[in-house]
Each structure stands twice: as C-alpha cells, then as structure tokens.
C-alpha cells in the first residue's frame, strides 16, 4: 500500500481503512448515492466494503481504493478507486471512479485526485485510464475534461445502462520498446519510409493536405482507396443538401463513416490515410484509438505553413464553406496543439513535416519525399 501526495502537499491519497467508515457515511449524500454508490450506505455494508478494499491491497487484487484526504488533518473528502479488471476494459486499461462529499466540491480536488491516481496506475503498468460517466452527470464529465481525458463515445454497462466514456493515455516510457516515437527525419535525408498503418494528416484548411494526397496517388505511392477524406464523405452524404451538411448531426454521421472506412483498411493490414484537419487533441485521440484496436502504427504528417501562406492558398481555393475567420481559428489551434512533440506524446510513432510552398516544394516534390510500405 502507498500514499500519494500532490506537489503542494495539500491532497493526499491513501488506502481506505476501517477508521474511514464513519466519515464516509457522514459525507454521503443523494448525489453520491445516485452517481457512485448505487444505494444508501449502511454501517455494516460500508465496513464490509472497506474490509474488501483492504484485502485487495494485501493480495494485490485488481481493486485499489483510496481515500481523498485534505490538509494537515488529512480530512476524508471523498474516495477514488482504480479497477484494473472489469467487464468492458481492454488489456492495459484501468477504470477510474471518484466521488467527493458535499463540503469539498467545487475546489478542484477531484481533478487533482484523478491526476495523482493516474500516475500511480501508470507505474502499475496501465497504458490508458478510462472514466465512465452517466450522461446526466455533468460534474463528473467536467472533472474528466479538466484532467485531460477525451470523450470517445457511449458504451453499455453490464446492466444495460448507457454511459459516456472518456480516456487518457498514461505515459510509460519504460515500456515503449519498438514503439518508441521516432525523431523527425532531417530534410534531404532521402525518402521517408511510412509503415503500413494509420497515417494522420494534421493541418488547417488550405495547408496543402488534399494536393499532397492527390500527388501520392498520381505517383502510385498509395492507392486511391487508402485516402479517407472527411470532405469527400461530406460531399457524398450531403452534396445535394447543403443546408444539412454543416450540422452537428451531419458531423457525427460523417465521422462515423470515416471511422468505418479506416477500420476496414486497418483490419486487413492496409494503410489508411485520415485526411481531415485533425488540429485538436480530441480529433487525433479518436483516430489513435482506432489504430490501437489493430496494433497499427500511427504516423502523423504535419502541414504548418505560416499564416500569410495559408491565407494566400485559401484565397485561391474558392471554398465558400470555409471562411477566412475559420482559417484563422484552425491555424490558432494548430499553433497551440500541433507541435511535433505533442503529437508524439499523444501516440504517434513517427511525426514528419510535409514541405510546401513556403519551402519552395510543389505537392509532387513533397510526395516524392515519402514512400509507403
């Protein structure tokens, strides 16, 4: 058993023990019963559960239950537990569940507890933390977001209830092995070999992604079916209904179809190129999860012209569905979230910059720098 302490020493996680029974029952309210406990606690039931938690610690079982303690007095503010085995978890995943008593809510304690327990889970060998939230539990969802988790969709529990699922990759450099991210290839080093797997294009609108993949196809580097374009899917599904194509429902349908096509390629061991902006961590996380289902390597290709070049290229495209303000916004997201080191930390096994007009390279010349296995 162990204690985990925040950097300022104010939040401590330590295993639940018999002395916590009374404090837990005193802190329990309707929200904890609804979202976490499943029913009102009793003296006997809570004591029995804590004995079980103690046994799990002693035997190295899959449940690790902590009390969230605050201040020098180590007052019990709530609980947080990890389950390394439970229905619905994949190998390497760990479930995180947490709850605070009413007097301690709204102070950021749950987020800090989640971050602490994720460090512990990584040290114990977990690759990814999972938080499962009732769709109506907006407070718990907010904690997941603040702790760096990404929403990946809904799933069904063993009782048939639906819940929103959030995930966060856990750092584990000592287990990276052959999948350790590769450094950027230097310019002029010859063709860059891209392994069969998922290729994620990352760049704002008008950054040259479509011209690049067309050049790849023209040179015979990839077959046309390898490129899965969200814009092309949007046109296929809503080309005759422009009023429908920019709604949230349309986006959900488009990206579900994109994911289906990517999965069909990866399941056969073939390359899939995800051609969309992918300038936010959430967009990329969804794609990385797809690749992990098939143990496929992820290569990310960055398209990052300066803003002036980007706006010039946008002006020459005659796109009415993308405004100049949109280009500015996507470029800002790219600047904040598209740095190569960040892409590697999110799960890219290799990251490469694709040259463009700013480097004096045509799409054909850029395509010539890459070979696809």
Mean pLDDT: 85
Biggest sheet, open or closed, and with what strands and sense? Answer: 8 strands, mixed
Spatial order of the strands in the main sheet? 1-2-3-4-5-6-8-7
What percent of residues adopt helix (DSSP H or I)?
25-40%
Structural classification: alpha/beta
Distance separating the two termini: 48 Å
Total helices: the number is 13
User: What is Rg?
Assistant: 24 Å
SS elements, strand count: 15
SSE pattern, N- to C-terminal: EEHHHEEEHEHEEEEHEHHEHEHHHEHE
The low-confidence parts are 173-189
How much beta, percentage-wise?
A: 15-25%
General form: elongated
What does this structure look like?
This protein is of the alpha/beta class and 373 residues long. It is built from 13 helices and 15 strands. It has helices at residues 21-27, 30-37, 43-59, 109-123, 138-146, 209-218, 230-238, 248-266, 281-293, 307-315, 324-337, 340-345, 363-368; strands spanning 4-5, 11-15, 63-70, 75-83, 93-100, 128-133, 150-156, 162-169, 192-194, 198-202, 227-229, 272-275, 298-302, 350-353, 370-372. The chain has an 8-stranded mixed beta sheet, sandwiched between helices. A 5-stranded parallel beta sheet has the order 11-12-10-13-14, sandwiched between helices. It is elongated, with a radius of gyration of 24 Å.
